[in-house]
Amino acid sequence: MKNFLAQEHEKLSLWWAAISAKEITLYLLLTLALLLPVYLYYAALGITGLTEWYRCLRNFAECGLLFFLTELVTRRSLLHPFWRIGYIPFFSWILIFPYVLTHAVNGMTDASFNHLSPYFLTAMAILLLLFFVMNVISRVYVGKRLATLICLALVCFFTFNAFIFLTHYEFMGIMMTSKEMFFALTNTSRWFERIVLSHISLMLLLFFLTLALAFAALYAKWIYRSAYCLSPKWIPKNRKSYSVIHRMLQFLVFFGCLWLFLRWASECFPLHDYETAKQYNEYIEYIKNTTL
Known about the structure:
Shape: globular
Helix content: over 70%
Mean pLDDT: 83
Low-confidence stretches: none
């Protein structure tokens, strides 16, 4: 037991000694560079409650700490190609949802950060989740294409959700809520014919579909290259075995990210609206089939 603890202490000491003060400073500055524009963007949208600690400042501080710890335990800064894969879904959620929620006719009249925090926290979780997914698939030696497709599916799901939300607002002037979702689920053909095609032509829909396929194809290539064809400057030169404590720290940070995603994604579009619409449908079916 003493030998094991001594080895763990030695490995942990070597890992910590390899991290320079310059590296830690870089992690901190990059974390601030990521979060500060988000804060300023929310302020520009007129979102209130940005100076309150309970919801806004605390969430920014917690996410900043999570990003910093992730960079530290993996020794991969926010400039690393693994992080870059998640930037498009991340900024899609950060930019689109608050904008539509505050500008749509049926949106929020006096939006506060308390109302938008699920989207903010989910966006942070998306970026962290995709980073960890990239770390996992980069270690795959068999089934690289399948691993790439799994990561691509996550990217497309998060990105297209945001752009569908934006497209609905741009062409119809309102944001998609559980009411629209209910109509789309229960009367899909009528919804597509009378709502979608009356605002968006079939040719434009085909154009959007072509763009989506091109986006997916290019992104798949980007994911594959980032995972399996990394530039030598991003590959660590000294691959020392990490201690069990260090591995535990990595798992703790990962589960913190996973909890963040599972906790807040269900309160955002489309999962929240889908569940609400499904409950509406179940209630109507119950009324129809109940004899009073």
